[in-house]
Every structure is written in C-alpha cells, then in structure tokens.
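Exercise 4. Each item below gives a protein and its sequence. For each, produce the structure-token representation.

Item: Proline hydroxylase (Pacificimonas flava).
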Amino acid sequence: MPKLPPDDGDLSAGLDERGWSLLPALMDRGECEDLRALYGDETRFRSHVVMAQHGYGRGEYRYFSYPLPPLVERLRRRLYDLLLPTANRWRRALGQEEFPGTADEFWRACAAAGQARATPLLLKYGTGDYNRLHQDLYGEIVFPIQLAFLLSEPEEDFTGGEFVLTEQKPRMQSRPYVVPLRRGDAVAFAVNDRPGRGPGGYHRLKMRHGVGEVRSGERYTLGVILHDAA
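Answer:
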C-alpha cells in the first residue's frame, strides 16, 4: 500500500503557494507494475476513452468501475482525509460551504447530486501522444484537489511526456509549471479554482493540467479524482 505521509506543512504549503505539491516515492515498482497490468482487464472499467475522438489530444484512458481495486479504494479514502484540511481552508477563503468530515459522507453527497460513477482512471500514452490542458469536472460537486501517480520510469519506459500545469490569475497571462515526476511519484494539484490572496482579499486562480508529447515509449498514469461523476 502506498505510504502517504502526514501533512508536515510542505504538502499544504505547496498547494497554497503554487497550486501543486510533489509527493515523491509513494509507490514502489511492484505497485506501479500491478496497476499498469490492470489496464488490459476490461472487466475493471466502466468506460474507455480514445482522446483523439473527442479532441482531447492523443492517447487513451479507462475509468475504473465500482468496486474499485482494493489498492485504489484504500488510497482514495486516505487521500480524502489527508487533503480535507486544505480543501476546507480553500472553501472558507472562497466563501463556500465546507466538505463533510468523512469520505463516505462526501460520496453520499455526490450520489444525492446525481454523481455516482467512479472517477479514478488509468491513462496510457504512446509515442506522439499528449493530453491537452483541461480540468476534471464531472458535476456540480467538485473536490478541489486531485492526484496523478506516474507508473512508468522516465528515460527507461518513455521520453518526453512531461506533466504540465497552468495558473491563470485575473487579468494576467497564464503561468506554466512543469512537474518533475519519477515512477512512483505523485503530484497533488488544484482541479479548477484555488484561492489566491491579493490586496482586496482572496480571488480565484484557475488551474489546468495536461501532458506534453511523448517522444518515445509508453507512459502510464493513475489519476485519483475524489468527486464522482454524473
């Protein structure tokens, strides 16, 4: 099981300061390989998306169906607990209602709003594939932080394929970030809006994420989104 550290301040500080935070070496090689192997088992998934058919880029991904694989289920629950304090601090700053205290309460709220489909997914990129900048919004309820786990080793399994983020401040040009990931690393990042402090108080900073072009090989990622889909 991935070893999630307690938030010693670095996680929340990174999220507050730039909208993302790197969590190194959360998965070992065996866990990454086990998750990659699931991609070929169609019975695990509720849908298969070929990005080029929708203008999303190139590559493909599959959304897990419920029940989730045990590792993904445990990981998702622990991530909710870990990220909840930051998520609720952001909600308060933006004048929004706080999220429930437990993951089960949160997912019941999603279901009551018509969002009952699983959102964790595996993504597969080959040579020449990429993912356009986007936001993973699936309904009215949006947990503001999600994670991506790199399951392949750069320079060994693939080249290129950098994880990228952009931040849009009001009336300013976008700021880009390139996040350095190795196999087993995760990046926690803002799904959509996050609070930024200005002279007049808090304002909304809009984030988008994507993947640069893979120059060679294959790149696999586990995406862990905490809100369910309509």
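Check: The longest strand covers residues 201-211.
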